[in-house]
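Why do we care about 3D structure at all? Because function follows from shape, and shape follows, mostly, from sequence. That is the central idea of this module. The next example makes it concrete: a single protein chain, its amino acid sequence, and then its structure expressed as tokens.
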Amino acid sequence: MHWNPFAFCGIHHGGPVSCCGVTKKGEPCKNSVKFQDTKIGHERLTTLGREPFDLSTLQPKLYDIARVFLCARWHRQRQADQVGQQ
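And the structure:
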């Protein structure tokens, strides 16, 4: 089965440039994510899209990928598991 992890995760192929985490008030975080981290995340999603879709192994892979789309200052350590589950 061919699938698109960018669409699956709701990430535009050119972004995000801001953190996909959520503030304590429930608002989207507006902190920036380093370009290099975003590039790594896009590369990992592209690689994931070449693999067969397997729901049983998807969640740990998404945790790993989600970390690079979170700001290092507030959310990378705290919300990677939550973002990976979404």
